[in-house]
Amino acid sequence: MNKLAVITGGTKGIGKALVEKFASEGFDILTCSRKEADLESLKSTIYKLNKNVAVSTCVADLSAKSGRDALLKNYASLNRTADVLINNAGVFVLGQIHNEPEGVLENQIQTNLMSAYDISRGVVPGMIAKKKGTIFNICSTASIIPYVTGGSYCISKFALLGMTKVLREEMKEHNIRVTAVLPGATLTASWEGVDLPQERFMKPEDIANSIYGIYSLSDQTVVEELLLRPQLGDI
Ligand code: NAP
Q: What is the tally of structural domains in the chain?
């Protein structure tokens, strides 16, 4: 039987590159997003890429507890344990702490932090029972650097890195590897409208290939943090 990768937010950007990479390596996939049409289109892309893998999708808004529950219900219905969980779904909202509208922080905490918290809590028990599994949380350079144009985003990503560090310690004795991935600027829909040359960004495929490489190391090795930046530096 194929291995199973659960990847949140798999229809665009880094998540889509991850789905394509793991599917091309023979993993069955469970993914989600808020748009059914995008999920259907992803399914046909993956079918063309590798007919020997199964792709399960779920329309779910992970900024809401109900959406997170819907994804976990879908996962439970597969009656399998994920070999890999990648908490990727996230949003970036431009803004500053001192003057952004109310709710900007709450929305990003729900989407960027609580989704990873709840989905991990749903998936980890099966991994513990198997004494095997790998979890990647897609943090950001905004997890270690204060960006004045994304204050609440930074808060959510600093918190996600903190959660990842704690989960890493909790999971040690259970033989489950936990990795924080900290990409800098990567060319995805998140950057729509920004007028900069493509060379200033990393490619989503580079993030996906790096993550797959880390996954492929022996069970004796965990990469606790992976920091990736555009060759020309931060934007
Ligand atoms: P993206 O291109 O905007 O794609 C985000 C994916 O997540 C899409 O599939 C999107 O689908 C889904 N998603 C967003 N909000 C969701 C929600 N509430 N519920 C369910 N699915 C949701 O983003 P990206 O740039 O690839 O970013 C992916 C991750 O990398 C994020 O955590 C981001 O913070 C992080 N990151 C990105 C960069 C960068 O420069 N791009 C740098 C550092 C870290 P729908 O919108 O259809 O729901």
A: 1
Element (H, E) at 5: strand 4-8
Tell me how far the alpha carbon of residue 218 is from its chain's centroid. 22
The CATH number given to whatever domain includes residue 96 is 3.40.50.720
230 lines ligand 1 (CB under 6 A): no
Has 212 been annotated as catalytic?
no
pLDDT-based confidence at 193, cuts 50/70/90?
confident
Q: Are 2 and 50 in contact (CB under 8 A)?
A: no
Q: Is residue 52 part of a domain?
A: yes
Q: Which of 21, 36, 88 to probe ligand 1 with, by most ligand atoms within 8 A of CB?
A: 88
Candidate list 75, 117, 153, 215, residue with the active-site label: 153
Task: Count the helix, strand and coil residues of the chain and give each as a percent rounded to the nearest 5.
Answer: 50, 20, 35
Domain-located, residue 233: no
pLDDT in tens, 71-126: 999 999 999 999 999 999 999 999 999 999 999 999 999 999 999 999 999 999 99
Residue 7 confidence (pLDDT): 99
Ligand 1 pocket check for 34: Cβ under 6 Å:
yes
Domain range enclosing 10: 4-228
